[in-house]
Write a structure and sequence with these properties.
Layout lengths: L1 E10 L2 E10 L8 E10 L2 E7 L13 E8 L10 E6 L3 E4 L13 E4 L1
Antiparallel strand pairs: 1-2, 3-4, 4-7, 5-6, 5-8
C-alpha cells in the first residue's frame, strides 16, 4: 500500500508542510512447511524450509530465527523453547544438541 504522509510544523515564524510518498509494509508471512530435518545424527541435523510466499513488501533479505526444545519421551509436554541460531538462508545446520543447546541428552527435539 502506498500513500502520502504530510508533515506539518508551525511556530511563531510561520507554518509549513511537506508531503512524503510512503510505502507501508507488513510483517512477512511465516516460512512455508514442512520443516525438514536432513542429515540427522546424534548431535544435530540440517534443517530446511521454504521461504514465505509473502515477504511483507520488504526489499531486503529475511532473517530466520530457529528455536528448539527437548520433548519428553515419557509424560506430556516439553521444555521451554531455546534459541538455537539465526540465518538469512532457507536452511541451517544445528549442532550441539547433546548438551545444553536444548536441555539435555537422549531426547527428541522439536524445532520451530
Amino acid at each position: 500500500m502506498t500513500g502520502t504522509y504530510i508533515c506539518s510544523a508551525s511556530n511563531r515564524h510561520g507554518r509549513g508542510s511537506e508531503g512524503v510518498a510512503v510505502t507501508v509494509q507488513s510483517v512477512p508471512a511465516p516460512p512455508q512447511g514442512p520443516l525438514e530435518a536432513r542429515d540427522v545424527h546424534r548431535h544435530g541435523c540440517r534443517l530446511a524450509w521454504t521461504a514465505p510466499a509473502d515477504c511483507g513488501g520488504g526489499q531486503g533479505q529475511l532473517e530466520y530465527v530457529v528455536e528448539g526444545r527437548r520433548w519428553a519421551k515419557e509424560g506430556a509436554g516439553g521444555e521451554d523453547w531455546r534459541r538455537l541460531g539465526k540465518t538469512n538462508q532457507v536452511q541451517m545446520i544445528v549442532d550441539g544438541l547433546e548438551g545444553d543447546a536444548v536441555g539435555g541428552e537422549a531426547a527428541e527435539v522439536e524445532f520451530r
